[in-house]
Specification:
The chain is of the alpha+beta class. It has helices spanning 19-26, 41-52, 109-122, 139-147, 170-177, and strands at 9-12, 57-64, 67-75, 92-99, 129-132, 151-157, 162-169. Helix 1 packs across helix 2 (41-52). The relative contact order is 0.14.
């Protein structure tokens, strides 16, 4: 596989099978905004067992050539994360993503990941708009979000952080990336 091959597949997270892998990712210093730096393996397994049991929250591994390289979460913002913090609309889908830490970064990889995540979300015809709420200090992800069509709306205070509430419609995603959604 070449560095230019940015084809990804998605597989549901199995909390026990993938627990050690996810633990190594979410506790890595580059994942500080994931807010699990001090988590023990059992904490990560428990968190992803709760997600697996939740009809409004789903976790998927992104694979490249069969190798897990990122984590994505899709949630219903009317029921999780953003409940009461904004006016959820039918067709809204919340999203988080985390690229696996690496000692050999590939230029453009993270942008390819977020583009694939967004395309995957928009494969569901029910999804009209994607909602994100990254930490206001996470300027790197704000730039990535804008590159795929997100438009920041306002800062909101969540229990664990001050977040930048941003939205991206199918049309905004296609206009920003050229990827049909």
């Amino acid at each position: 596989m070449t560095d230019t091959d940015m084809t990804f597949t998605f597989r549901p997270v199995d909390p026990l099978t993938h627990g050690e892998l996810l633990h190594s990712w979410v506790t890595h210093p580059k994942a500080s905004f994931w807010m699990m730096q001090d988590a023990k393996l059992e904490d990560v397994e428990r968190a992803y067992m709760e997600i697996a049991a939740d009809e409004h929250h789903h976790a998927l591994l992104g694979l490249r050539g069969g190798v897990p390289v990122f984590l994505m979460e899709k949630y219903d913002p009317a029921h999780r994360e953003l409940t009461g913090l904004y006016e959820a609309q039918p067709g809204d889908a919340g999203m988080h993503f985390l690229v696996a830490p690496t000692d050999t970064p590939v230029h453009g990889f993270t942008r390819a990941v977020i583009t694939a995540v967004m395309a995957h979300l928009f494969e569901d015809p029910e999804v009209k708009r994607v909602v994100v709420e990254p930490d206001v200090r996470n300027t790197a992800v704000h730039e990535l979000n804008e590159a795929v069509g997100f438009v920041p709306e306002r800062e909101i205070q969540k229990p664990e952080k001050k977040a930048l509430l941003s939205f991206c419609t199918r049309e905004q995603f296609t206009a920003a990336t050229g990827v049909a959604a």
